């Protein structure tokens, strides 16, 4: 039987992402080839949030399809996750020119799209890839200190990870990323057992692993 609420999420997410493709709300609209809304399972328990589209993503309209995406596929495998069961998106949906870092105003303007996506997908676990998505949840924290350490914020488990592209520039970070991702099954298990957002305490706590 089709679950009407589940089907509604699928329809609304499709509509949202379609609407996004026409967005010109910030300066990044000028330089992009196309918007990269994100993709994956609308009912995913785990959402991955990267920084922004690069060259290949801008060409194809899909997140993480270039070299960083190939490494992300490897990392997902290490976590026992299939790409089709998770949701993957970015902090900004349009490619910053020359792959520069997104400006605060661009991140702020684009956040309405990500807010709406997360409200629909409603994940148990949010994996932040790199420092910009980390800053959305834990501003001021240093990624080199907090990567791989899950926290529960307002009932959602946040797992800060290094950005996969960092390991392409610095090979010594590969094992760190692989180790952090290998913890995800255990983190997901603990997150499933944790109280739902409605029953959870407000604020940030450490996630208790079994
Ligand atoms: N890097 C990102 O942060 N996101 C992508 O989609 C690709 C590379
Ligand atoms: Fe719109 Fe976001 Fe693209 Fe800016 S980056 S134009 S806010 S979709």
Q: What layout of secondary structure does this protein have?
A:
Layout: H1 4-20, H2 28-31, E1 39-40, E2 46-50, H3 55-60, H4 67-78, E3 87-90, H5 104-121, E4 125-129, H6 131-137, H7 143-146, E5 151-153, E6 156-161, H8 164-169, H9 174-182, H10 184-193, E7 204-206
Parallel strand pairs: 2-3, 2-4, 4-6
Antiparallel strand pairs: 1-3, 5-6, 5-7
Helix pairs in contact: 1-5
Bound molecules: uracil (URA) and iron/sulfur cluster.
Iron/sulfur cluster (SF4) is lined by residues 20, 23-26, 28-29, 35, 92-94, 106, 109-110, 113.
Brief rundown of the structure:
With 210 residues, the protein is of the alpha/beta class. Helices cover 44% and strands 13% of the residues.
Describe this structure as you would to a colleague.
With 210 residues, the protein is an alpha/beta fold. It has one domain: Uracil-DNA Glycosylase, subunit E (3-Layer(aba) Sandwich). The protein contains 10 helices and 7 strands. A 7-stranded mixed β-sheet has the order 1-3-2-4-6-5-7, with helices on both faces. Strand 5 and strand 6 form a beta hairpin. Helix 1 runs antiparallel to helix 5. The longest helix has 18 residues. The termini are far apart. The model has no long low-confidence stretch (mean pLDDT 95). Bound molecules: uracil and iron/sulfur cluster. The site of iron/sulfur cluster has 15 residues, from helix 2 and helix 5. Uracil binds next to helix 4.
CATH class: Alpha Beta
Q: Which overall shape is indicated by the principal axes computed on the Cα atoms?
A: globular
Biggest sheet descriptor: 7 strands, mixed
- How far is it from the N-terminal to the C-terminal residue, by CA? 35 Å
Give the name of the CATH architecture: 3-Layer(aba) Sandwich
């Amino acid at each position: 039987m089709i679950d009407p609420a589940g089907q509604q999420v699928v329809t609304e997410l499709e509509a949202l992402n379609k609407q996004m493709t026409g967005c010109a709300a910030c300066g990044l609209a000028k330089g992009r080839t196309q918007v990269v809304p994100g993709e994956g399972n609308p009912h995913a328990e785990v959402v991955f949030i990267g920084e922004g589209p690069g060259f290949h993503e801008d060409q194809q309209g899909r997140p993480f399809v270039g070299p960083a995406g190939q490494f992300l596929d490897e990392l997902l495998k290490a976590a026992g996750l299939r790409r089709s069961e998770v949701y993957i998106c970015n902090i900004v949906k349009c490619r910053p020119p020359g792959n520069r870092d997104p400006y605060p105003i661009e991140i702020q303007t684009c956040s309405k799209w990500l807010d709406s996506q997360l409200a629909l997908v409603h994940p148990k676990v949010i994996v932040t890839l790199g420092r910009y998505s980390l800053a959305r949840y834990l501003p001021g924290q240093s990624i080199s200190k907090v990567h791989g350490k899950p926290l529960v914020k307002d009932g959602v488990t946040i797992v800060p990870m290094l950005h996969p592209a960092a390991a392409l520039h610095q090979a010594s970070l590969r094992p760190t990323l692989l180790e952090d991702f290998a913890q995800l099954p255990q983190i997901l298990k603990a997150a499933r057992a944790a109280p739902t957002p409605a029953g959870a305490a407000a604020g940030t706590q450490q996630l208790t692993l079994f």
